[in-house]
Specification:
single chain; mainly alpha; Endonuclease Iii, domain 2; Endonuclease III, domain 1; 2 domains; binds iron/sulfur cluster
């Protein structure tokens, strides 16, 4: 069963790669930057959280300054990301915890840890779930974590990679096992692109889809037409 599903993932990965490109892994970066960025991205659009992150860095160029600022000022700086009254204290609490534990505002030590250990470390922070932890490890540490966001969750069910109704967290556990490590970054990024451009939540554009031949939802719809 695992081998069949892995083979299916490899085929989908190849088709998406032909459509969207190889998506090379970004160079390693400071995991704390990525963590704050990912917290800002929760429950909002890409444009809004990019703006909020840039405004935060403009207003407070260092994490020390964010930590020392009154909460209302941090909230004001990240307002465009939404839920600023939740995200600002969440970010400041994490910064406080990191400073206390590590003696510096950096999580660069994560670059030395194996995937599982780094993942478990990040999960202990309030407001950091499996998706956020996996994003940090995939995008800043180059580790083959496989985040399941709203697009990946939707596509993995439609494609039949996970059973319908599987939660995002459970889907992440399943896909983490199935996706070949060397494909994790490319497959994640390409699924997100495909979810945004073609396999939309409301009206998937199946007639334009390059992976329709691998899709459970599509074959069911076609069966229904007969
Ligand atoms: S065939 Fe339709 S439902 Fe399936 S992945 Fe493509 S767009 Fe999504």
């Amino acid at each position: 069963m695992h081998a069949t599903m892995r083979a299916k993932i490899v085929r989908i990965d190849e088709l998406l790669q032909a459509e969207y490109g190889d998506r090379p892994q970004p160079p390693p970066s400071e995991p704390l930057d990525e963590l704050v960025f990912t917290i800002l991205s929760q429950n909002t659009t890409s444009k809004n959280y990019h703006r909020a992150y840039n405004q935060l860095k403009e207003r407070f160029p260092t994490w020390e300054e964010v930590l020392g600022a009154p909460q209302e000022e941090v909230e004001a700086a990240i307002r465009t990301a939404g839920l600023a009254n939740v995200k600002a204290p969440r970010i400041q609490k994490i910064l406080r915890q990191v400073a206390k534990e590590r003696g510096e505002l950096s999580l660069s030590f994560l670059h030395q840890l194996p995937l599982d250990e780094a993942f478990q470390y990040l999960l202990k922070f309030d407001g950091v779930g499996p998706k956020t932890a996996a994003c940090v490890l995939l995008f800043s540490c180059g580790l083959p974590a496989f985040p399941v966001d709203t697009h990946v969750h939707r596509l993995s069910q439609r494609l039949g990679l996970v059973p319908e109704g599987t939660s995002a967290a459970a889907s992440q556990d399943i896909l983490q096992e199935l996706v070949p490590p060397e494909a994790a970054h490319r497959f994640h990024v390409n699924l997100v692109s495909h979810g945004r451009a073609v396999c939309k939540a409301q009206r998937p554009r199946c007639e334009k889809c390059v992976i329709a031949g691998e899709c459970q939802f599509f074959s069911r719809e076609e069966e229904g037409k007969k």
